[in-house]
Automatic annotation (TrEMBL):
Family per record: Belongs to the HAD-like hydrolase superfamily. CbbY/CbbZ/Gph/YieH family.
Gene Ontology MF, one: beta-phosphoglucomutase activity
The protein's name in its UniProt record: Beta-phosphoglucomutase
Annotated Gene3D superfamilies: HAD superfamily/HAD-like, Putative phosphatase, domain 2
This protein's encoding gene: pgmB
Pfam families, per the entry: Hydrolase
Taxonomic superkingdom: Bacteria
């Protein structure tokens, strides 16, 4: 029986992928090559460092350690300029419906994200207080599909991994949830999230009755 819920951030709670994309695109253009939205798909759920490695490979750019570190900072500074302007209007549709329902029923919730900017983003959109625990890119050493982020989140909310649900929009995140022994729910493209135990296009399709069936509520 499900006793805890873990949410990914980017692509599940807010659509920050578009801001990551704009910041990576700007860097690619500065380095003399193009970067498109299709290529950006591979960046979802992936750490900042790994994204830069992929970007440089795409552009055939060789970097010194100093350049690599500089571009990591530059991309993040550009990204933070978009985050600065975020507000409650950027919460994806019907996410509050599920958060409020779980909160009202005292079901613990955790955030499990690859982002090192998770806390400021949750604060900007006014959702930080819903989460008993935030595990993000600052707390883990192994990236999704490794289950570390979700196992740590389960431990911190005091729920057995097999009693946890994970909402994820990235294939690597679904694989991480499955290897953690958790129930995986894919949010987004069902043709990409084929490993998920349940699939929904968005939270508008998820009813509180569905949540009730999973839990003891
Ligand atoms: P940052 P998630 C991930 O968030 C994004 O999907 C991914 O595109 C990004 O590179 C990663 O966070 C790191 O983000 O640069 O803010 O540390 O989907 O795991 O919530
Ligand atoms: Mg995501």
């Amino acid at each position: 029986m499900i006793k805890g819920f873990i949410f990914d951030l980017d692509g599940v709670i807010v659509d920050t992928a578009k801001y990551h994309y704009l910041a990576w695109k700007k860097l690619a253009n500065e380095l003399g090559f193009q970067f498109n939205e299709e290529q950006n798909e591979a960046f979802k759920g992936v750490s900042r460092k790994r994204c830069l490695e992929i970007l440089l490979d795409l552009g055939g750019v060789k970097a010194t350690q100093e350049q690599f570190d500089h571009w990591m900072i530059e991309k993040n500074e550009d990204y933070l300029r978009y985050i600065e302007k975020m507000d409650v209007s950027e919460i994806l549709p019907d996410v509050p419906k599920i958060l409020d329902f779980l909160k009202a029923n005292h079901i613990p919730m955790a955030l499990g994200s690859a982002s090192k900017n998770a806390i400021p983003i949750l604060r900007k959109v006014g959702l930080l207080s819903y989460f008993k625990v935030v595990v993000d890119g600052n707390n883990v050493t192994k990236a999704k599909p490794d289950p570390e982020v979700f196992l740590l989140a389960a431990k911190d909310i005091g729920v057995d991994p097999t009693d946890c649900v994970v909402f994820e929009d990235a294939l690597a995140g679904i694989q991480a949830a499955n290897s953690a022994g958790m129930t995986s729910i894919g949010i987004g493209d069902t043709t990409i999230l084929t490993d998920a135990q349940y699939n929904f296009n968005n939270f508008t399709e998820i009813s509180t009755d569905f949540i009730k069936q999973l839990t003891t509520i």
